[in-house]
Amino acid sequence: MVRKSKISQWWQKQTGEEETPFDSDSSAFFTSVMIHVVILIGLGLWPFIIASDKDEIILTTTSVDISEVTEAEPPEQIHFSEQQMAEVGANSDLGTQMALSQAAVISDVSEIPNPADPSDVEVAEILLNNQVVQATGLQFSEHLTVRGAVGEGTTGASGAVDRITHEILQSLEERRTLVIWLFDQSGSLIRQREQIHDRFDNIYTELGILEAAENEAFATHSSKPLLTQVMAFGKGVSTMMKEPSDDLDEIKSAVRAIAQDDSGVELTFEAVFKAVNGHSKYRAVDAAGEPKRNVMVVVVSDEAGEDQQHVDKTVRLCQKLAVPIYVIGIPAPFGRQETMVKWVDPDPAYDQTPQWGRVNQGPESAMPERIKLHFAGEREDKDPIDSGFGPWALTRLCYETGGIYFAVHPNRNVNRAVSKPEVASFSSHLEHFFDPSIMRDYRPDYVSYQEYGRRIQASKMRSSLVQAAQLSWSTPMKDPRLKFVKRSEAIFANELSESQKMAAQLEPQIDGIYQILQIGFSDRKTENSLRWQAAYDLALGRVLATKVRTETYNAMLAAAKRGLKPSVDKNNTWTLVPANEISVGSQYSKAAEKATELLKRVASEHPGTPWALLAERELANPIGWRWQDSFTDLTPPRPGNGGNGNNNAAAVNDAARMIKKPPPKRRPPKL
């Protein structure tokens, strides 16, 4: 008999059991269990053992509650669609499927292209803020043509509706769908609302919804393939129907019932938040584990929205519920917030003379990225130009939720400038438009405010540009006095001195902007974004050119006080005219050469963009000055009263009585 080990004897004595865990078979099992436990613990601790020593950046966001809006409790189960989602929005890789803002070719039949088949790849790669193709729009006739009349302010909206019809059709192929139409109530959107109202028949006919509504299989509300809700917003948000419906007459009546809001306030993001949050139940799953419906929101607005600070919260909600946002909107003016919109009284009983009202339609970037300068007749602030993109916050909402932003403008023309008389009613005046196939490489950063700030701080060049842009927009630059009439030596000298004071006030302002931009020069060579390259080079070139103009203007006035020799003895008027010559100092000549070099680089490296256009305008305006003398008659003859005054007066009165009394004139509402 083999002697038992002491530990086995101890176990038997304590438990009274003959078998012990330390017998040969049990011992092996126990040892195996312990080894596996040790291995599992080791695997669990392994990530901590090999943790990287690299610094971690923790980003936090501050939630901003939208006034009187609380986020509803989400359904117990939310479906996040596994269907491949095209990266669209303000930018898209699917150029053949995108709608532009107007049709260059008018067609009698709307054509909607078939979706491109996605191809499999071995490794999927997501690139944050890479050079994504911009949504092209309707002016590429080979991609999409729509019926409509160019110049009436409706062509672009019609094309966008046709494109959205295609999006609805794709959604219906996956599952039942709810579409929420969200209309801006401002007076400037009257005609677009009417036009879209008239196209609801086409939408429902093309989708086959009218036929489906007569099918007994879709008798109940929950089984109807397409439901529609109509909402409106201005200073408040209104739901125009008690519940979503597929009754076309009810839908059109709801659109017609939208009242005009003349407050001038558009709470766009609060409206989107309420629309999505209020219909979140449609994203809950049914008994089969599928979501009840797809939900998509179509915003129709010609403004940027007064509550853009709520875009982050709205984006998060739409992403959580997988609700894409589509916007039938307007192009943002380049680097500025407001545009002038042409208003013609919709009531023909009133004066039909065009009037102009300011509307918030921009900018296209999260923060100012363009220098504002106004000195010696520069024009870019008088005539806004297209940015190539929609207002930043609304475009970002579309981009980050998988929707599309349609930049609609009836006067879009990339081949020539657009004058004010050509602008269609209820449209903004944008003097120049740019080819979207070029602008796609210059898209803004569609990221959160926090991420945008982080990217700015990470680059001295970007940071200096944003700071300089903010400073330039808060410091107005006025036109200098260029013409001086020599009535006497004392008066002439005094007028020159007063103009010098104005220049002396401008010089430190412009020099301060220049010094801020210089801080970022060292990072210019490492900047890869075409947008930021063009913006920085243009800003530095323009500021340097303006700095030279201001300082040489002052120097030319100082030289004039020492005496000027006229080309003709009787000439008594002196005018400063732009010239490609600098006669008051070599240091100014070197700075002018550097400014010219920067501006030429922008024009050559970024052709067909707003930056190139402004650089070319700057180059067309010489940086130097020269004096030009002329004669001004200081004792002109007084106008006479020739003829019979009484007879003339009587004739004028008779003509006035024959003139028809003009119709009354109303001021435009807040647009």
What's the quick description here?
The chain is an alpha/beta fold and 671 residues long. It has helices spanning 6-15, 24-49, 155-174, 190-206, 209-213, 248-256, 268-278, 311-320, 392-401, 436-439, 449-457, 460-474, 489-519, 530-561, 586-605, 610-620, 645-658, and strands spanning 177-184, 226-233, 237-239, 294-300, 325-329, 338-343, 355-360, 405-407, 483-485, 573-579, 624-630. Mean pLDDT is 76; it is low at 47-69 and 74-155.
Order of helices and strands: HHHEHHEEHHEHEEEHEHHHEHHEHHEH
The level 1 CATH classification of the largest domain is Alpha Beta
Query: Major sheet, described briefly?
Result: 6 strands, mixed
Count of runs of 4 or more consecutive helical residues: 17
Helical proportion, percent range: 25-40%
Q: Report the mean per-residue pLDDT as an integer.
A: 76
Going across the major beta sheet, what is the strand order?
3-2-1-4-5-8
Annotated CATH topology of the largest domain: Rossmann fold
Strand content is 5-15%
End-to-end Cα distance: 106 Å
Give the total of domains.
2
Q: Low-confidence runs (pLDDT<50, min 5 residues)?
A: 47-69, 74-155
The name of the CATH superfamily of the largest domain reads: von Willebrand factor, type A domain
Rg to the nearest angstrom? 34 Å
Shape: flat
| CATH architectural designation of the largest domain | 3-Layer(aba) Sandwich
